[in-house]
Amino acid sequence: MTTEYTYLFKHALKACEQSYAPYSKFRVGAALLCDDDSIITGVNVENRSYGLTICAERNAIAAAIASGKKRFKALVIATPDADYPVSPCGACRQVISEFMHSSAPVIFGNSEDSYISSTVGELLPHDALHELACRG
Ligand code: THU
Q1: Which of the following is catalytic: 4, 57, 98, 122?
Q2: Is 131 a residue of the active site?
Q3: Spacing, Cα 32 to ligand 1 middle (Å)
Q4: Residue nearest to atom 9 of ligand 1 (CA)
Q5: Tens of pLDDT, residues 63-97
Q6: Computed from CA positions of residues 91, 92, 98, 101, in that sequence, does the dihedral angle turn out positive or negative?
Q7: pTM value?
Q8: Regarding the domain with residue range 3-134, which homologous superfamily does it belong to in the CATH classification?
């Protein structure tokens, strides 16, 4: 991981402390690098009606939008409770693609030494209607 992504990973990992995951016990933290170099984090928030759970990535994006940021350079996801890197779910891939270019890096890992470096386009190929997305 480059120094920049290690820094983001540390933010994502720290965010995991705020994860609300009493059902799965699987904490996830996400750190978004915004175009202005600020960092916005998000965590997974579960619900006893399981289907209402919202992933860390989508919560990070929602928090960023709410704070007036719409352009993102990179996304790093930490899943410290797994023993291998866990990639974003299908719903998150779609939402990520709304706000990030297909070439933008998405790094996911369970530790600083166990991660996969991917891109939005690799995670969501053949992105239908991509021309309708407002990626800034
Ligand atoms: N989860 C995320 O927050 N992001 C992912 O990329 C994978 C899954 C959450 C949802 C749920 O709270 C828990 O991890 C187990 O699936």
Answers
A1: 57
A2: no
A3: 16
A4: 55
A5: 999 999 999 999 999 999 999 999 999 999 999 99
A6: negative
A7: 0.96
A8: Cytidine Deaminase, domain 2 (3.40.140.10)
